[in-house]
Amino acid sequence: MVTKRLIPVIEIFGPTIQGEGMLIGRKTMFVRTAGCDFSCSWCDSAFTWDGSSKKDIRLMSAEEIWCELKQIGGNTFSHVTISGGNPALFPQIGELIHFLHNHNILVGIETQGSRYQPWFLEVDDLTISPKPPSSNMKQDLEFLDDILKNLEEHNRLKHVNLKIVIFDEQDFHYAKKIYQKYSQIPFYLQVGNPLITEQNDAVLAQQLLKRYNWLINMVMHDEVLKDIRVLPQLHTLVWGNKRGV
Amino acid sequence: MVTKRLIPVIEIFGPTIQGEGMLIGRKTMFVRTAGCDFSCSWCDSAFTWDGSSKKDIRLMSAEEIWCELKQIGGNTFSHVTISGGNPALFPQIGELIHFLHNHNILVGIETQGSRYQPWFLEVDDLTISPKPPSSNMKQDLEFLDDILKNLEEHNRLKHVNLKIVIFDEQDFHYAKKIYQKYSQIPFYLQVGNPLITEQNDAVLAQQLLKRYNWLINMVMHDEVLKDIRVLPQLHTLVWGNKRGV
């Protein structure tokens, strides 16, 4: 008997909009895996790795995940985003991708580029988000380079984008260096949310729009950052710090 | 002597972000032409056609426009958006597009699809925004169809997107019909701004985010609208109803 390899899932929700990055505004479902090899200081999904939501983790097969997606999303969707945590920890995500593709569903992945999986070559929208200095993480930029070279060799760069979250000027300079190295890859800067416990949505939105304006101004005066997009997190502007939207 | 055909320009500004549609967040310069064949009830750039800013209109050659773009944008940009009014009123925009391409600048155009110009085939990012019932305009959908068929015949659909502004449920149903007809073209719904005279930016942002949430909810429950993006106008969230940002 073949035992299906199970995926640790911490939440499944949608349909909703993708609130950030290359598919901003796109209708999608979300599957969020548990577990991360990083622990970014400002992580807005720390419940995936800090133990606080351990009881929510379910080990699910690709088929079980598909059934739950259909149960809550019905016939309203054609795209699924797999986020984390870091979904690149799990080779068995490949089975989920196959399963979704067989049902004519496009698949987006969000990962930091610290791990590689062969299924990277099959993802329709692969977002790689190297973590800047403010995260207090040490991103292995050589490993990231290997991943991107491999994607290029397999002619997959048109499915890839780089996204860097910016909290301060140091992050900005880090992002600029990465942009200069990979100027052929679509490049997104995203304004960081330092107020992940703020409960007043209107106050949060105003603060985030102010910080977004700050980031826009820095980019606009820059002669290096030209082919670039600067974005906020739309879901946070609309729904605040809530989970599952 | 060859007389260059001049373009009626009402404002040139940037660099700033493209606040809406397929290039949302992208760094770009704006050239706004004067004059429109439409007069949408809720137009947020009515000064381009209602006579209120007639004194600002300058007749400029492609080279003069380029010089002004360089003067204010320096070496910070690689993309120019030509908006209006309706830039498709002017055959001479073709010369501006050539001029910009010769300087390695990508060109986006925003037009409603009521007029056609041969230079549509050279635009890098062509946004066509048919106007829904709330505009009080009567869009000629057969003419729009001819434009899109022509773009398809010239293999240009990968440079095209459709964007429809939504104010109410009637607009939503109109957009749905167009989506069903052109499901192979990237499709954007944008939440309308009914508060174009609101001066309090925070009040405006909250109202627009509320309306954005309303539009998201309508789309999320819909079984027809699948491959779709739903977006706000980021510039209005950040800078309110100001001109020239």
From TrEMBL, chains A, B:
Origin: domain of life: Bacteria
UniProt xrefs under PROSITE patterns: RADICAL_SAM
Enzyme class: lyase
UniProt keyword rRNA-binding, yes or no: no
Annotated binding of Mg(2+), by residue: S45
Presence of keyword Iron: yes
Pathway where it operates: Purine metabolism; 7-cyano-7-deazaguanine biosynthesis
Reaction catalysed by this enzyme: 6-carboxy-5,6,7,8-tetrahydropterin + H(+) = 7-carboxy-7-carbaguanine + NH4(+)
InterPro entries: 7-CO-7-deazaguanine_synth-like, Aldolase_TIM, Deazaguanine_synth, rSAM, rSAM_sf
Residues annotated as binding S-adenosyl-L-methionine: W42, C43, D44, G85, S129, P130, K131
UniProt-recorded name of the protein: 7-carboxy-7-deazaguanine synthase
Organism of derivation: Aeribacillus alveayuensis
